[in-house]
Amino acid sequence: MDVLMAEQPLVSTLNQLLSVPEEMEKLLNAPTRSYVRDTKAMASTPADIKEYPSSYVFVLDMPGVKSGEINVQIEEGNVLSISGERKREEQEEQHKEKEKEEAEVKYLRMERRVGKLMRKFNLPKNANVDAISAEYRDGVLTVAVQKLPPPEPKKPKTIEIK
């Protein structure tokens, strides 16, 4: 009996020491704030993707984002990255309202989304990353990626017999 009682603290200590690497791994592999923010931004940015004979077209709703604050980039060779950020009303507008009403603005309800908008798309192999155009109108961003022409079929090669 005495041996079992003496082993329990030892076993308990060993279990704690063995579980430390597992807990450290969880901490080290925990998602960063920027990863969580980007994931939420990607989930809340709706997109339509259309394929035409000569291009791919991406249509994204980005209401309230100024065209100069939208970034369209190609990352890692074939990843189309689109991002922007919708901010709350500008401070200047709030100050003008205060001067007019001489009272502080109090939100009764705030339903419109603010924050980062982002989507990333893996482009197909036949996408021409050197021929991309983007247009922003009425809160809708349209990005067109031209397709590469299909490769010409290889002609049979005749081997001369000597």
Automatic annotation (TrEMBL):
Gene Ontology terms: cellular component: cytoplasm
Do you know which InterPro entries this protein is assigned to?
A-crystallin/Hsp20_dom, HSP20-like_chaperone, Small_HSP
Q: Which UniProt keywords apply?
A: Cytoplasm, Stress response
What Gene3D superfamilies does this protein map onto? 2.60.40.790
Query: Can you say where in the cell this protein is located?
Result: Cytoplasm
Q: Segment Disordered: which positions?
A: 82-102
From the UniProt record, give one GO term of the biological process aspect.
response to stress
CDD domains hit by this protein = ACD_sHsps-like
**SUPFAM superfamilies of this UniProt entry?**
HSP20-like chaperones
Q: What is its main location?
A: cytoplasm
Q: Where is the composition biased (Basic and acidic residues)?
A: 84-102
Question: Which residues belong to any copy of the SHSP domain?
Answer: 38-162
Stated family: Belongs to the small heat shock protein (HSP20) family.
State the PANTHER family in the record.
HEAT-SHOCK PROTEIN 20 FAMILY MEMBER (PTHR11527)
Official protein name in the record = SHSP domain-containing protein
Which species? Nymphaea colorata
